[in-house]
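Quick question, first post here. What does this chain look like in 3D?
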Amino acid sequence: MNEQEWYLFDLQGYLVVENVLTAAQLDALNAELDRQIAVVNDPDRTWFRWDGLLPWGPPFQALIDPPPLMPYLKTLLGEGFRLDHDYAHVIRQGSGPIGTRLHGGGTPYDPCQYYHVHNGRMYNGLTAVAYELRDVRPGEGGFACIPGSHKSNAPFPDEWRDLENFSLD
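> Answer (accepted):
Ran it through. Tokens below.
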């Protein structure tokens, strides 16, 4: 993690790291996701969630520690860290805002969900890695985060929890 990335993570609470996965990895991951969707066999279903992807094989197991991410994870978490849980959400375009109720914020204090900097080192509890396995263009959804919200010293405004009503204006 370079100095600019360190600063941005400290400021915003997240980073976008591009090109972590190869085209071959994306193809394998998407092929398995397509297979899992076909198993459900419900074309009218607007969203899917699976917990515990590691039994889906090596392509999903490789998401735990891809070499391009390791310097970031070691800076954010230190040398020893673990996978707590894994899951996949597939939300079909046009199905509306699913899962858009925002959560988090730095209050009230939860000792498992923290962010501190001490003597030039970051200490992070509850760090997540999210992968977008297909292109997500503007207006199609994807990851949402209010920069800095997870380390705020003020409670998260209730009226912002629903993305449909969120506005900084």
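The beta strands are 47-51, 87-91, 115-118, 121-124.
The mean pLDDT is 84.
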